[in-house]
Amino acid sequence: MKALARLGKILSVACIYFTVVTLLLYTCGSIVAESGHQWIPTLQMLYMLLVFCILFEAVNQLVLRTRLPYVLKLLLHYGACTLIFSVIFIVWGQTAVNAGSTLVILTAFTLVYAACAVILAFIRSLGRAKQNRESAYESQFKNVKK
To answer: Residue 72: CB partners within 8 Å, gap ≥ 6?
Structure first.
């Protein structure tokens, strides 16, 4: 039953990611359409995005369970996500036609990943600062006599 609960959590969070990214894609598509170009995500692209979101959240859950320093977790997560992204969008989706376009796509992925990592690290530091402020002070010198 525990595995089923984990799978349910992975799927529910992945669906949230999928919904947000799909809305962003369609928003960008409508902005591009105003300039005279037509860009609508295809059904294959939506399936690739759904598979990516599910695997992305599975990697999130696996990496969060490890007892590694934060930087190592981040590097491990980045490596796994880059591999998943490459297999799904570059190999399966055949979006890259040569080495140059592959490099551009992976650079764009890395920039988006880095931006998200910086934002999440900032939020994480705010949470830790709040937790430190709210924790009760405990004297280190309890046994010292006056």
So the answer is: none
